[in-house]
Amino acid sequence: MVSRSALPSARTSPENSGMTISLVTGANKGIGFQIARGIGGTVLVGARDDTRGRAAETALREAGVDAHHLRLDVTDQDTIDAAVKWVADTYGSLDVLVNNAGCPALDWDVPPSEVSLDAVRRTYDTNVVGVIAVTNAFLPLLREAPAARIVNVSSRLASLTLGADENSPVSRVNLLAYNSSKSALNSITQAYAKELRGTPVKVNAVNPGFCATDMAAGMARYGKGMRTAEEGARPVIAAALLTADGPTGAFFDESGLLPW
């Protein structure tokens, strides 16, 4: 059981945070861009589109960030392998992996029984298979770091407990492909945390909140009080910079632990 006091805050950071090498997938816009902007150290801007990735790199550098575009499509093993080789040749290790790249909900207003298998496959290819592919590929480099962190960007919609609670707003958002992919992501988080328990590598899932990004465009009808992408990045950054006494195998946001 992870105590609430052990959870990270936006102020949490290791003493050597300025020396970290971090890879953020899907970092060319939205929450990923804000994570890259605020995480510190050297940031590898994972993006599948070279033009957008380089534009993000330029914007981050203008903001004082030591940013480097890294072509990376989480659904393309060749780009993953090439990215791993480049990081290995350039740095020799990786301190932080933020699995932020995600497929937005493709099943708005579609009953589960009518969701296309194409939408399900596209969602799972990025949100589930892509995370496994990237994590497995970079894990040897993460093991080379003195205290690596893996952060999986999840969602409150991943919570089976909240989804089954008729009094929770989560239960009103019945997206078969998206919700179940994020539930699977949480299960993946637990699996890696169990494998890596007893090592310096910590693995956690973080809910950035309901943020005003392109991916959340269809969610406006479900609630108010959308956060900015910068606000959504804060708990992710905190998890990426956990100290040695921080949790592993947990699911949380800025308010504390979330139910699985």
From TrEMBL:
Give the UniProt keywords, A-Z: NADP, Oxidoreductase
Segments spanning the bilayer are none
Q: Which PROSITE patterns match?
A: ADH_SHORT
Record carries keyword Oxidoreductase: yes
**One short Pfam family name for this protein?**
adh_short
**What InterPro entries would the database entry show?**
CBR1-like (IPR045313), NAD(P)-bd_dom_sf (IPR036291), Sc_DH/Rdtase_CS (IPR020904), SDR_fam (IPR002347)
Citing just one GO molecular function, the answer is: oxidoreductase activity, acting on the CH-OH group of donors, NAD or NADP as acceptor
Q: Which family does it belong to?
A: Belongs to the short-chain dehydrogenases/reductases (SDR) family.
The name this protein carries in UniProt is: SDR family oxidoreductase
